Structures are given as structure tokens and as C-alpha cells.
Amino acid sequence: MATTAKTLIERDQSQPHRQSSHMVTVALMLVVAVVSLLFAEQVATGWLPLGERTNISRRDLNPIEIVTMVGTGLWGLVALWGMVSLARQEIATSVRRYFHDENVGGTPVAVTLATILLLIIGVIGLAFAEQVLTGWLALGERADISRRDINLLEWVTIIISAVSGIAALRTTWGLMQRDRRAWAWAQWLLLISTLIGLAILLNGMFDIPSMVRSLGAVADNLPQTQELIAPGLVIFLSSLAVYRMLTAEVETTPVGALRNRLAQTPGAGAIIGFFAILIMFSLASDLFLEQRSVAGLLATNITRGIVAIGITFLMISGEFDLSVGSVFGAGALVFLVMMTEGLPLNVLLALPLIVGCATILVAGRGQLIAAKAGASITSGAARKSTIVTVGAVMLVAGIIIMVIGVIAPDSFLGQMVITSVIPAVITALIFCGILGYFNGIIRIKTGIPSFIVTLGTLLAYRAILLVAVADGRILRYADYQLPPPYVWFNRYLLAGLALIGAVVIGFIGFSLVRSAWRSLQSRREKAKEGDSSDFRELLLVASFVQVILTAAATIGAVVLLALSAYDQLGLSASLLEVSFFDMLNGRFEFVERDVNLRAGVMWWLILVLIFQFVLMQTRYGNWVFAVGGNPGAARAQGINVNRVKVTNFIICSMLAGLAGIITVARLSNVDPLMGDGLELEVIAASVIGGALLDGGYGSIVGSLLGVMIFGMLQTGLVLVGVDARSFSGVIGVIIILAVIVNTAVGKVRK
């Protein structure tokens, strides 16, 4: 009785909300009817010409105009009938009973409207695919191309249109047969149709400014404005209204299912923002998705992308680093100096000794804590004493080496060491790791928030560049008249690595194909046993496609690596000479010359895959999440919280140094302000990508999307004619929106 009363109370409380939603749907249907009938009237009276109108009077209609007039007119009448029928009902509650109870007579208004609308969508989809396939509707670049030849964009359009048309017609038939699965299919198809209608509407709205510039004010060109806006408006409002009617009684709508799915993803806000910005700028400018724009977007964000990986790793563990911009510049400086002017030997020897000393001292304290927890105090104290003694000796040795090099610059310890490119890279990365270690150890030993610590080291590390590259000069590799740095690879070693890679990829691919095949077999068995899933056929097809694509990708990768090994073995020279700068960040030669696609993009994506794997699939990744989410619980589980945080500071700084090296490989110079302001950009990208400021949540893929959003805004705002000076304001708004979305997603997840 209590449960029944509670259910009745909940129904009564939800009644006003359902009535309000019902009235909104009625209003939408009224707008659809008015817009459709007005559009048909404008075409019928000749005020809205469509298609080819050469030498045709206003009173004569061409086939396109006749079809459009009849179609929109009939749909307007149907929408008007649906609106009146819906308004007479208190609440549309008959759809569920219609599909679950065969004894219910009559067809609900929502089902009737969905059947008609999906029939129209199916016919239009197949007709559109046929027109593109036969060459009557050209898409993309068609210069000097025969009508019989179909480009990639047209093939993609044909496949999507044909599949959508067939799915819509199949769903229409299912609705007519009262198939319960067709109800679920109709909801998803109408949601997709709503989004397509919204995209068409936005595309038309973005074309209005160009129309105004060429033809004059909107008020003087109402027919052209209607032609741009009306089709998308009718599709959008019609699909939205029918979707709302079909989902009035559904507990988890398609939108709700997507929201719940995104709530499980750390980069939910970044995913939404990425696709929203991508679609918006794609509709606003035809140049946005050109190869040159996409390649430029990727190439200009290599630095941000690599540094954002380390920042995200650090933010997930509950800390963040404001000094990465200075570390980025310092790493680039050390790399370039080691190949040109060199560094004093005493500095190269003393820094590792001093850092080793600090490490041993910290380890000694940890050993003492462990001894107090388990072993005897005497043995723990003895162990600590030994470790501290070794650390003190190393510290004294480091200080002596530094002092001798300063006092006697002509001595052996004062000599300048100039290295080749590989030792220079190693030295720069070690130096950046030391800077990150200082950040972490100061944070841990003093307990000062990382914001304050790294704000101080930001200024301290920036002084390295300001002192080393003084008087506003720029350190250029070309000024030293040195040959380009080359590296040499043994061809037999490369062939062996290629074969090993082929074997590894073949093994992994075989495991993935076998897993996908088992999934396909399982779905087939469920289908034979009478699986009642709404998307049974779709899941079967998806599993089959997964098997085919996985097998094809595996075979292709193995064949390419095997052919690469064969090519290396077939060459006469035993060594392969490669420009180090080109290998790190050179332009790919297989693309057109005006397409600025660089090797740094490849290294960026490889690092994303590696660190995403470490974060999500390894024990250390679990430690990072635990340390950022609940340090106390992490300590209780035996995780060394301080060690994880210091390690992440080191990783963050070394990635910043690597980004600096890759930048030098492209620019071949270093200036005192290199990397200035980079820290705020990458922190913004990480926040947009879903990382929380208080730690415990985020993903490397999310940081990738955050950087891509950053880059798309830079490129897109320029292409649509927005003043570039407003970019910072837009980024600020995006950051606030990202935090709001991430907070909302967190509430849904909880």
C-alpha cells in the first residue's frame, strides 16, 4: 500500500511537467504547420524560385518546385492535423500501450506522424544517394573530373544517404507492423534527423551575411532568405516535435542515454565541445576542413599537445605546474647550446650529484619511516645514517666540482663540452627532469601549494633564458655555420625492428580479431535464441564490421612493416642517414607542398597513445587516480603518494623539454621569451579536456581534444572573419563552460 501511494504521489507530481512538455510539443507542431504551408505558398505563387529558372515565367513551375510545393504543403496539413489531434488529448500516453498491448485499437498521433516523416526521410535519402551516384548532384572538387568518376566525399555521402534511407524505410515498415523495436529505432533516427536539420539551418544562417554583402539587406531579399532558412527549419522543428511525442513516455530517451554514456567519460565536455565547434566552423566556412587548414591546425598545436599530456597527468594526481613554459624554453636552450656553444663540464657533473644527494636524503627519511612502522628503531636509524652519509658525500663532491670549475675556468672541469645531437637531447631531457624534480621536492618537503611553488620556479627558470640569451638576441643554429645534425641508423637493425613490430602487431591484431569474432558468434547465438534487443540487427552488423576492419588493419600493418624490412635489406648501403630536425618535426613529403603536415604531429599522437595506455591500463595509472582522488585512502592502500607526485612533476617537465626540442627542430632558434604564456594555454586545454583542478579525474585523450578545441577556435575565428584579438575572450568563455559541463557530468555520474 505504501509503495502504491508513493507511486501515485510521484505521478501527480510529474503531471504538471508532462502537461508543460505537452504544450511545448503542440506549439512546435503549430510552428511546423505554419512554416511548411507558408513555404509551399511562396513556391506556388512564384515568390520563391527553386532550381533552374532560365526562360521560365513566374507562373510556370519546374519539377523541383512542384515536388517541393506538394511535399511541404501536404506535410503542413499533416502537421496541422497532428497539432489539433494532440491538443485534444490531455497527455499523449497511448504510444507505449500501442506497442505493448495488441488489443489496443487505433494508431496514436505520434506513431502516425513518425511513420509519415520517416517515410519522407527514407525516400529523400535514397533519392539523394541516387542523384550523387549517377552524377547529377556533384559534391566536392569536380574540376576536370568526368561525371562517371566519383570522389571520396561523394562515396561517403552515397553510403551514408543510402544506409539512412534504408534504415528509415525499414523503421517505417516496423511502425506499421507495430514492432516494438521500431519504436526505439524511430527515436534514434528522429534525433539524428533533428541534428541534421539543425546543421542545415545553421548553414543557411551562416550564408546570410554573404548574401547581404552581394544582394543587399535581408528585408530586400526575403525569398533568398527563406530559401536558405526554411528547409532546415522545417526539418529541425518537424523532427524535434515528433521526437518529443514519441519519447513522452520513455524513461531513458536517446538524449538521456547519450548523457549517461558521456557521464562515464572523463572528457565528456571536450567531446561535446569538439564536435560542436567542428560542425559550427565547418558550416560557417568551406575552408575549415581543407587539407591545408587541418594540417596547419595540427602543426601549430604540437607544442601545446605534448606539454598538455604532462600537465593532465599532473593535474589528475592533484597538482599542477605553472613553470612548464619556462621549462619548455630552458630545455630548448640546453639542447641548442649543447650542439653549438657547449656547457661547462663542472655543471654537467655537479647537477646530477646534487640531485642524487637530495634523492638519497629523501629515501633515507622514507627508510626511517618504514623502519619505525615495521623493523626495529635501531636498524632503521642505522640504515638512515648510512644513506644520509652517502648523500652528504655526494653533496660535498658536487659543490667542490662546481667551485673548481668557477675558480679555475681553464682547468679540466672548466672546459666547455659540445656534443652531437643525441647526447644534446639526453642532456636537455635530464636537465628538464631535474627542474621538475625541484618543483616536486619543494612541494612535498615544504607543503606549500603547487600553485605557489611553480609560480616561483616559473620566474626562476625563466631567468635561465634571460641570462643566457641576453640583450634581446636570438640564439640561432645557422649563426654557427654548422652542418645540419644527422643521425645514422643501421639498415639491418631497422629491418629487424620492422619485423619485430610486424610480429607484435600481428599478435595483438590476432587477439583483437579473435575477440571480435567471439563477440560476433555470441550475438549470432543470442539472435538464434530469440534475442529481443531493440538493436539486434545493428549490433550484429557492427560486430561483423568490427571483425572485417580489425582484420584488414592488422593485415595492412603487418604487410607494410614486412615490405619496409624487405626494402631495407635490399639496399646496398649499410647505414641510413636521416636529418634529425626533419625526423622530429620536418614536413611530410608525401603531401602537397602547400599542406604543412609535420612529423611532430606523429610524435604527439604516439605520446597520447602511450600515456593514455599508462594511465588507463597500468598499475601506475591507478596510483595516479588514487593519489589525486583521495590521498589518505591511497596511503592506506600502501601507495607512496609523495613519490607518485614527484614522478609526475618530473614527467611533466621532461615532456615540456621534449616539446621544446621538437620546436627547435622546426625553428632552429631560441629566444629569451620562448614558451612565455604557454603554461596558461596548456592548463586551459587540460581543463577543457575534462581534468579537474582538485585532481582524481581526467584523461590524455581529453587533453588531446582540449588542444584541438583550442586550435580549432584559433583557425575558425580567423576564417569566419572575427577579430583575432577576441580569441582570448572566447577561450575564457570556453574554459568557464567546460568547467560547468564537467561539474554537471560529475553530478550525473554520481
Sheet of most strands: 2 strands, antiparallel
Content-based structural category: mainly alpha
What do the pLDDT scores average to? Answer: 79
Number of helices: 26
Evaluate the radius of gyration.
32 Å
As an assembly, this protein is single chain
Strand content: under 5%
How many runs of DSSP E, i.e. beta strands?
6
Shape: elongated
Distance from N terminus to C terminus (CA atoms, Å) equals: 31 Å
**Portion in helices:** over 70%
> Can you tell me the residue ranges where pLDDT is under 50 for at least 5 consecutive residues?
1-15, 366-378
Order of strands across the main sheet: 1-2
Description of the molecule:
The protein is mostly helical and 750 residues long. 74% of the residues lie in helices and 2% in strands. α13 packs across α15 (421-446) and α24 (678-688) packs parallel to α26 (727-749). The chain is elongated, with a radius of gyration of 32 Å. The two termini are 31 Å apart. Mean pLDDT is 79; it is low at 1-15 and 366-378.
SSE order and pairing:
Elements: H1 2-44, H2 63-88, H3 95-100, H4 109-133, H5 152-176, H6 180-215, H7 222-246, H8 254-263, H9 268-284, H10 291-299, H11 302-316, H12 324-339, E1 343-344, H13 345-373, H14 377-407, E2 416-417, H15 421-446, H16 450-468, E3 475-476, E4 486-490, H17 491-528, H18 536-570, E5 575-579, H19 580-585, H20 599-617, H21 619-629, H22 631-636, H23 641-667, E6 669-670, H24 678-688, H25 700-719, H26 727-749
Antiparallel strand pairs: 1-2, 3-6, 4-5
